[in-house]
Write a structure and sequence with these properties.
The chain is of the alpha+beta class. The protein is about 30% helix and about 20% strand. The longest helix is centred in the middle third of the chain and has 15 residues.
Length: about 270
């Protein structure tokens, strides 16, 4: 069992935390047009917006080395009458690759949930891996009558009540701070010059999986038009099980291939 120490982030930690975030997301799923991750720039920018909650910017240490970080900002649900209900979101949640799957992220979440509850917040809404976050209590946001700002729901959009019935009477559309939508690759590439040079990560094409599946399952995965394993890894196990030809054997192959390439996936 790792001895994980959690404390509040200080200004002296900023560079180390940003470098950690860069390491954690270097192989992650990027949006269209991205050539490197932008989560380390997001952490940098979040600290300077009004929505930032400094009491909930926490680091995890092992042997006095920062190996994890979580950062929170205020968000809101706007109901049909235009009333705003303040909530929280977190992210990025970062764990150094050497300590993945060893409880660092879970420890940060559990500690921060208690701190958020003590600060008087009622709930947290996130966009995250749908097979991971339910393990710490998250449920589909649609179950609470909450949709995205554009009116949709999907399994990666999740909510956690910090105390029983905390979201009673709160329904509507969910909005993050605009900083999440204001990152550009130009700014990210400039910001990235602060850190040691790093070889660009080339995403693994989906063919690395397709070639190992039975023909029917391969065709159904192929028809989803996922180009890389990283995109596939962002989808839930349930969503793939819903495909008629994706059986238990197919799921085990998908899990194995993703883990071979460093992606935790599945229930």
């Amino acid at each position: 069992m790792l001895d994980i120490h959690i404390r509040k982030e200080t200004p002296d930690d900023y560079y180390a935390v940003e470098e950690l975030t860069r390491e954690a997301f270097w192989r992650g799923f990027w949006g269209e047009g991205q050539t490197i991750c932008d989560e380390h720039l997001l952490v940098h920018k979040l600290r300077n917006v009004e929505a930032f909650v400094p009491e909930l910017s926490l680091v995890a240490e092992i042997d006095n080395k920062i190996v994890g970080h979580i950062i929170y900002s205020k968000s809101k649900v706007v109901d049909d009458n235009g009333a705003e209900h303040e909530l929280l979101t977190f992210g990025p949640l970062s764990t150094h690759p050497e300590f993945k799957w060893q409880g660092v992220g879970r420890a940060l979440m559990k500690h921060s949930f208690e701190e958020a509850r003590n600060l008087g917040f009622r709930a947290i809404i996130i966009f995250g891996y749908p097979d991971y976050y339910p393990k710490v209590g998250f449920r589909p946001a649609g179950e609470f009558g909450i949709s995205t700002a554009w009116g949709s729901n999907f399994d990666a959009f999740m909510a956690l009540e910090l105390y029983p019935r905390a979201l009673d009477g709160i329904k509507g559309k969910y909005y993050l701070d605009p900083v999440y939508e204001q990152l550009t690759q130009e700014d990210t590439l400039e910001f990235d010059k602060k850190f040691p040079p790093k070889e660009a990560f080339v995403h693994i094409p989906i063919e690395a999986l397709l070639n190992r599946l039975e023909p029917d399952a391969r065709k159904e995965i192929e028809d989803l038009n996922f180009k890389t394993l990283a995109i596939l890894a962002s989808k839930s196990e349930n969503s793939l099980r819903a495909l008629p030809s994706v059986c238990d054997e197919s799921i085990e192959i998908i899990k194995a291939v993703l883990r071979e390439h460093g992606y935790a996936w599945g229930k």
